[in-house]
Design brief:
478 residues; alpha+beta; Outer membrane efflux proteins (OEP); 2 domains
């Protein structure tokens, strides 16, 4: 009865944290339109047969791309920074875990001192100069009655898991940037080939117009018009060469190399086969993206931090003990008579702390609100990102159908013009004029093919790029 009364008295003396709590709520999947994969079936895109592989870029079967991404993942400083942050977070979790275990330390103190003559020591010790020595082992064990150490460990583990997910998100972002830059370089090279053919075609056209002017069949106006097209064609080539150099510089930066060793001829753009991806926003999007997983772990860590802040309002109970030797005079330190020991509980109770604990709890609750709202914002942005990429992918497919029809029509007109020229029914200028439309369609085809690959990589990134939240285990975080 007395023990119960004492316990009630102790708890009633604790500082009060009532009225302080988090107000933010985690967003519900249905609120952002997440649905099971099979519920939004569409015939516009092939379904996803299996989850994305973590090395999704291998499906493109391009050895140069594989080499570049491997080099980037092995050497880029941003990944090393992410790994260093992960190591730091894991060290913090190990430190937090050790707080719940018994602590033992040893000490040796040897002092030559004068004892005060007006203090607690009586004569002949008072006013004398003597040597004192203490050789002692001290032990303590904090009894975690209110979960302070457990919540602190949960906070540290949540941060470690978030850091691990951040490292995976950095890998995904780097790999996708390398792939996008590589395919952008392919696009520039393909456009450069079309631009060079355009220049050659306009050069031929000018030569033919010059011949017609010399023969009196055309005027200087037609010659000036054909001549004005040459600088524009050369300008487009220079623009594309600048883009080519910039893409190479980007690849060098992403792979941490001064000079990117590329084969003399990149894989032809048309030879790259797109990967079949889902056209739906899957319900497990929250677990597929490493950045969302990291944000969720930060919510868990912040929640544990709030719980830890509440435990500070309760008593702190420790079992402490010591055993060792203590003497006045070094020559007596190791004698049996110098033995000393002690054991007992130590209780620390917050009674009046001028609002310090409540202010700390308010700050932790605000941190939790911020973590939840950051998570919610990231989920909303992720859903929008996936929806945008799916919408673009479907639109590009429809655009490719129309562009293919237009190119086929231009190719047919070019073939007819060529046949008429060979039969003597038309001039070569008619052939070159028909080829202009063909080259314009080829430029559009190159851009659309590049957008197919770029949009697909963006969709792979938006869907997590093969990340699995199951990799973030408790033991891995430790």
């Amino acid at each position: 009865m007395a023990l119960s009364a004492t316990a009630l008295l102790v708890l009633s003396a604790c500082a009060n944290f009532s009225g302080i709590s988090s107000s933010a709520k985690l967003i519900e999947p249905k609120a952002v339109g997440l649905a099971p994969q099979a519920s939004q079936a569409s015939a516009d895109l092939p379904p996803l047969a299996a989850p994305l592989d973590a090395q999704w870029w291998l499906a493109y079967q391009d050895s140069q791309l594989n080499t570049l991404i491997t080099q980037a993942l092995d050497s880029h400083p941003s990944l090393r920074v992410a790994q260093a942050r992960l190591a730091r977070a894991q060290a913090v979790s190990q430190h937090a875990e050790s707080n719940g275990a018994p602590q033992v330390n040893g000490s040796l103190d040897m002092t030559h001192q004068r004892f005060t003559a007006t203090g607690m020591y009586p004569p002949p010790l008072a006013g004398s100069v003597n040597d004192t020595g203490t050789l002692q082992a001290n032990a303590s064990w904090e009894l975690d009655f209110f979960g302070k150490n457990r919540s602190a460990l949960d906070t540290a583990l949540g941060q470690a898991r978030a850091a691990q997910a951040d490292a995976q998100a950095a890998r995904m972002l780097l790999a996708s940037n390398v792939a996008r830059t590589y395919f952008a370089l392919q696009r520039v090279n393909a456009q450069l080939a079309v631009a060079e053919r355009t220049l050659a075609q306009r050069t031929q056209s000018k030569a033919l117009v010059q011949d017609r002017v010399n023969a009196g069949l055309d005027t200087q106006l037609e010659l000036q018009q054909s001549d004005s097209a040459l600088p524009e064609a050369r300008f487009q080539i220079e623009v594309l060469k600048e883009q080519q150099a910039l893409q190479l510089n980007m690849l060098a930066a992403l792979t941490s190399q001064q000079n990117v060793p590329l084969a003399p001829t990149l894989t032809a753009q048309a030879a790259i086969e797109p990967i079949a991806l889902s056209q739906t926003i899957p319900l497990d999007l929250l677990g597929r993206r490493a950045d969302i997983a990291a944000a969720r772990w930060r919510v868990e860590a912040a929640s544990s931090d709030v719980a830890n802040a509440k435990t500070l309002f309760y008593p702190n109970v420790n079992l402490v003990g010591f055993a060792g030797l203590s003497s006045i005079g070094f020559d007596k330190l190791l004698k049996n008579e110098s033995q000393q020991w002690g054991v007992g509980p130590a209780i620390r109770l917050p009674i009046f702390e001028a609002g310090r604990l409540r202010a700390n709890l308010k700050g932790k609750a605000a941190d939790l609100d911020a973590a939840i709202e950051s998570y919610n914002a990231l989920v909303i942005d992720a859903v929008r990102d996936v929806a945008d990429q799916l919408a673009s992918a479907k639109a590009i497919q429809r655009q490719r159908v129309e562009q293919a029809a237009a190119q086929a029509s231009a190719e047919a007109a070019y073939a007819i013009a060529t046949q008429r020229y060979k039969a003597g029914l038309g001039t070569y200028l008619n052939v070159l004029s028909a080829e202009t439309a063909v080259l314009a369609q080829r430029r559009q085809a190159v851009d659309l093919n590049a957008r197919v690959l770029d949009t697909q990589i963006q969709l792979i990134r938006a869907l997590g790029g093969g990340y699995s939240a199951e990799a973030d285990s408790l033991h891995a975080a430790r």
